[in-house]
Amino acid sequence: MNTKNFKCFQVLYEEKNLVPAAKKLFMSPQGLGKLIKNLEDELDTPLFIRTKDGFLPTDAGILFYEKCLELEKSFRDLMINLENVRNREKRFQIGFASGSIRVIDINKIQKFMDENPAIVGAWYEQDNAMVKDRVLNGELGFGFAIGAPEDDRLKGELIKSEDMVLYVYRGHPLFDREEISVEEIKGDKIISMASRYRIHQDFLTACHMNGFHPNIVGNVNEGFSIFRLVENRVGLGVSPKILPDTDDVRAVKLKGEYSWDVYGIYREDGADVELAKKLIAFIK
User: Fold this and answer.
1) Quick one: angle between helices 29-43 and 4-15, nearest 10?
2) Could you give the CA distance from residue 125 to residue 127 in angstroms, rounded to a whole number?
């Protein structure tokens, strides 16, 4: 017996009419009617009484409907349990701090995921602190985090370092500069990454250390939006250098040791430490 026929029966039972039921099932009324007749023949009992008002269930039809609902729930539970088993077999999960996907070698990571069946091949960005906490708690086998880990239980390997720059539009007094100090932009309108990004917090700290609070007029989620706002002279943009210069916008280095560092982090006492080390060696 084809379990897909159960669904067809359920829809007809609920709709009580061939035309709307067939429409819901993307079938012709004739095809659905034939399927129900074959099901009744297989069960050797009528499930519906055909009337001018539609299909009315027999006692056998009512019983069959109730059992179909139980079977549907059992099948759904079975699929969930099978998915849980598959996920247990794929026990090694990788976390990505917000923004890290923009600078890591995606092709290499995907290739490593494909070659190692223990890895859950998912790409979800989370807050930087959350990624570090989840690696620390053993929920993630590996994480791409912004900044070196502060906890001694975490091992960190520098994967990518990008200069923190100021995107400046043509016509601004700082456009032709090679370097700009943080204090020189004290009175300017600034576009920054959203507050959940580590670079936003680092920039605020740099400004506060120079005795002022920046005039932030925009918080955005990715570098291209910063570039577009700078291009339209909304303000100056603070970002890792991830986009090339154009005739109208230049990336000017900020003086000082300001960088955006992506680390690969893992627990050295973790169950899958060898896989974590293998990933580090593969991508570096």
Assistant:
1) 110
2) 7
Query: What does the pLDDT read at residue 223?
Result: 81
pLDDT tens column, 23-72: 988 899 999 999 999 999 999 999 999 998 899 999 999 999 999 888 88
Burial of 88 per CB tally in 10 Å (0-12, 13-18, 19+): exposed
Which two structure tokens, joined as six digits, stand for 59? 């006692």
On whether the CB atoms of residues 227 and 243 are closer than 8 A, the answer is yes
pLDDT digits (tens, 9 = 90+) for 60-90: 999 999 998 888 888 877 776 666 555 555 5
Decide: helix, strand or coil at residue 64: helix
Least confident of 39-53, 79-93, 190-204, 212-226: 79-93
**32-60 burial, b for 16+ CB within 10 Å, e for fewer?**
bbebbeebbeeeeebbbeeeeebbebeee
Helix or strand (DSSP H, E) at 152? none
The residue type at 214: P
Whole-number pLDDT of residue 106? 92
CB 68 within 8 A of CB 9: yes
CA dist., res. 254 & res. 38, Å (int): 76
Q: Are 229 and 237 in contact (CB under 8 A)?
A: yes
Torsion of CA 104, 280, 145, 263, to 10 degrees: -90
Q: How far apart are the first and last CA of the chain?
A: 55
Question: Strand 236-240 to strand 125-126: parallel, antiparallel, or no bridges (unpaired)?
Answer: unpaired
Indicate whether this model's pTM tops 0.85. Answer: no
